[in-house]
Amino acid sequence: MTATYTYDVFTSLDGFGAATGDWGGYWGKQGPELLEHRLALYGEEQRMVFGATTYRAFAAMLAASTEESEVRDPWVTRMLNLPATVVSTTLRGPLDWPDATIASGDAVDVVARLKEESAVPLRSHGSLSMNRALLAAGLVDRVQVTLFPVITGQTGAAPIFRGAADFDLELIESRTLDGRTQELVYRPSRHG
Asked: How far from chain centre, in Å, is Cα 36?
């Protein structure tokens, strides 16, 4: 049986995964429903998959954070404690992550193998360039987009789909959180 792979990503309305300036985490739009929903999502048994860049960013943010900061929201702490595979040709262990292993090689090959071998679903939060490659290879089963109600035309960073192939998306789930943030879950298929 092949494990399901979910590409889980946060975005502004204009398609940026981050912003510079004074936005703060979640673009300042987090609320109790969002945080409770995220905790429930990460409460399920699953394996995280990260690219090296995202792993380094998460590890640095966690190392610089305090217990009270939003970086340590309960869902993030739960994500940190899930088993994880970090796809990298440059990182060397041990990793500063409780249950993480490094898989050296091409992400497409690594994730194809993980999908065949894993007894639990796979999820990746962030890892933009890796997930664009996995989409192109047909390895992403679900694209879960959490859409924050902001436009970051001047300060947007990390365009989530720039350079991706063309895809048709079938909406399979949607919800509004805190009356303002949308979560949209799609099944992607190559266009054309």
From this structure: 17
Domain count, the chain: 1
State the DSSP string of 28-95.
Answer: G---HHHHHHHHHHHHS--EEEEEHHHHHHHHHHHHH--TTSGGG-HHHHHHHTS-EEEE-SS--SPP
How many whole angstroms separate alpha carbon 92 and alpha carbon 102? Answer: 7
φ, ψ dihedrals at 80, nearest 5°: -60, -30
The whole-angstrom separation of Cα 151 and Cα 6 is 25
Instruction: Report pLDDT digits (tens) over 73-111.
Output: 889 889 989 999 999 999 888 888 889 999 999 999 999
- The three-class DSSP label of residue 131 is helix
CATH code for position 109: 3.40.430.10
In sign, the C-alpha dihedral spanning 178, 179, 181, 187 is positive
